[in-house]
Amino acid sequence: MNNKEEFNIIEKILCIIPILFILAMFILHLILPKKTFSIEEKRYLAQNPSIKLEEVLNGSYCTKIELYFSDQFSFRDFWVNIQDGSNQVLFKKWEIC
After folding, report:
1. Quick check: 41 and 56 in contact, CB under 8 A?
2. pLDDT over 90 (residue 97)
3. Looking at residues 32-56, what average pLDDT do you find?
4. pTM, to two decimals
5. What is the dihedral angle through the alpha carbons of 80, 84, 90, 91, rounded to the nearest 10 degrees?
6. DSSP conformation letters of the chain
7. What pLDDT shows up at residue 42?
8. Nearest-5° angle of CA 64, CA 67, CA 71?
9. Maximum CA extent, the chain
10. Which of 37, 49, 59, 86 is placed for a possible disulfide with 64 were both Cys, Cβ 3.0 to 4.6 Å?
């Protein structure tokens, strides 16, 4: 194999990885049980809203479904901790400057 073929293979693999990650997160979203309460945040999490024509037409359904997906994605506590940790590092970095 020459360098160009190796580069093409690596490029294809790097393009497939994000797609596989998104697919895995979608499957986990369907399989894992939904949480009702977040102990870390001390609040109730949004639940799947029922579809009502009135809410779809006035746009409030979109807001409810957005809140539901932001509260119910897989390994949410892990991702929230990652964000909190990165925010602490970034803010400490800016305080030093």
Report:
1. no
2. no
3. 88
4. 0.62
5. 140
6. --HHHHHHHHHHHHHHHHHHHHHHHHHHHHHSPPPSEETTTTEEPP-PPPP-HHHHHHTHHHHHHHHHHHHSSTTHHHHHHHHHHHHHHHHHHHHH-
7. 85
8. 140
9. 61
10. 49
What residues contact 9, with CB distance under 8 A and at least 6 apart? none
Quote the mean pLDDT of the chain: 86
Q: Which H helix or E strand runs over 62?
A: helix 60-71
d(CA 44, CA 29): 18
What proportion of the chain, given as a percentage, has pLDDT over 70? 93
Residue 62 identity: C
| Two structure tokens written together for 15 | 């393009």
CB 47 within 8 A of CB 36: yes
